[in-house]
């Protein structure tokens, strides 16, 4: 009899503790955040991803009532930062912005300490950075049709710069070569900055780069512009046709960006982060500053976990075969 009473008392106490713990957790999530949030960026300061992160961090912090601090964790094509975030506490105080590199890592690296699809929670897409295929100013072809003939006639004699294995500039070059059925001499750099410098200096023939830093050079005719990697012409450079309209139908490469959190982050926290991201992207100042750099803010129906997950899955399936066939790094 005494045993049964003690057992019932123990069960009652356990249930009360569990209930209190549940209420405490729910209350903590309701009050979240109570301190600053780290927004991890997998590249050095000053690049397109870092610029986008710093633009959205301020209004996100305003919405959440806490500072969102941008932290740069560069190296290994973004995999160092991805590993750090995947291992971080799933409490919402560590979030992550990454571009198309999130989709290409599994094809580029034999072993990853995380799974791009299952090690993270999805918050939403952010923005797309388009690209332009450019040539040195004294390269003989004057338009893409002439460039296509020139490439097929010269093959590996044509040099194409990129920002290193897995960079969007390299992916653009690989897709171009795949669509044209040619193999160029691909020259990796430690970023698009030095690659662009050598293109401007005439040391390399071609470069596919993001619009954030090349629009002034295009407008000043310091490079030859052969086409944008978008399906529609860019308002900032309306006279530059798309590669798609010039024969490479459907050719599209963009440095799309998304925001993630560690796997297991509570849904209530994810909902707040998603609302904060939407608030930031709806900010007139953020929109204008992004658009001034020819960066396209995605429509609000894409600023969702489902949309980001679908985008990541589609990009993994699209780029995996191209990367493996190219045997990167080459």
TrEMBL record:
Residues 1-28 form the signal peptide. The keyword Signal applies. InterPro entries: BUG, Bug_dom1. The keyword Signal applies. Keywords: Receptor, Signal. Belongs to the UPF0065 (bug) family. This is Tripartite-type tricarboxylate transporter, receptor component TctC. It comes from Polynucleobacter meluiroseus.
